[in-house]
Amino acid sequence: MLAYERTGSGEPLLLIHGIAHRRQAWGGVVERLAGEFDVITVDLPGHGESPAFDLAGRTVRAAVTDELNALRVALGIERPHVAGNSLGGLLALEMADSGHARSVTALSPAGFWMNGVDYLYVRGLFAGIQAVARPLAPVAGTVLQSRVVRTATMGCFFAHPDRIDPAVAAADTANMVASREGIKTFFSSAYRYPGTVQTDVPTTVAWATRDLTLLPYQAKIAERRLPHATHRWLAGCGHVPMNDDPDLVAEVIRETARTQRSDQQVA
Question: How many whole angstroms separate alpha carbon 216 and alpha carbon 253?
């Protein structure tokens, strides 16, 4: 089963990280939401402390969906609120499609490519980052003490990499290297979101204004494919906004969940 952590109390909230990251990416957000939600953070297959990817004859998409559903069932959660970043945002939207989400908050979600060039750009970006991460990992604890180095190596993910705790930066670098096979497996399939989210599931798509990974013009594609969703910008944030502004991210998730509660009260 996928590795996870669970904390807090209230309605269940599942948080899904993006490719090459780990559940600890949500740390600051968890601190802000555990007082009102039963928060579950999960490591995707081949990432963090989760087992290596085992497709077992399934497509990548089906395997990930099966693993997330198995976790949900094992925890006794029928329909959690779901928030995800990047690939996690796409997976959150797909959970809504299948009727397994009370509400969805997708932060710079993957799958809204304009064309194949977008996808190739992202693949190339991650290949370059991994090429840097491998030789950096053994000395990351030392060299990432430098704000300049953190900015140079992590600026494609964060608007403010200089603010990241050096120990967290080193652990993220080690995780990227350790997750290389899982990353490769995810990139073996060009995920694209078809835009079929159920209109009765409150959905927010929030794009980072300083996203250098999934470029912000993809937000316009998301608006066209998801006309019933709420679309907003995360000002001053990079591709992984949970680090840049955990207060803002927590509030966006909270507001989306409140929409679901209000709808229930009206009904």
Answer: 20
Q: Nearest to residue 153, comparing CAs of 125, 184, 186, 180?
A: 125
Tokens (6 digits) for 58: 């399934």
Q: 180: pLDDT confidence band, cut at 50, 70 and 90? A: very high
CA-based nearest residue to 98, from 194, 206, 239, 242: 194
Question: For residues 137 and 211, what is the distance between their CA atoms, to the nearest angstrom?
Answer: 24
Taking alpha carbons only, the member of 140, 167, 122, 150 closest to residue 20 is 122
Per-residue pLDDT tens digits for 32-64: 999 999 999 999 999 999 999 889 999 998 999
Integer angstrom CA distances of residue 100 from 89, 138, 246: 14, 41, 25
Residue carrying structure tokens 């932060």: 107
Cβ atoms 107, 83 nearer than 8 A: yes
Residues 163, 166, 172, 174: what is their CA dihedral angle, to the nearest 10 degrees? 160
Q: Write the pLDDT tens digit of every residue in 78-108.
A: 999 999 999 999 999 999 999 999 999 999 9
Q: What is the 3-state secondary structure (H, E, C) of 142-183?
A: HHCCCHHHHHHHHCCCCCCHHHCCHHHHHHHHHHHHHCHHHH
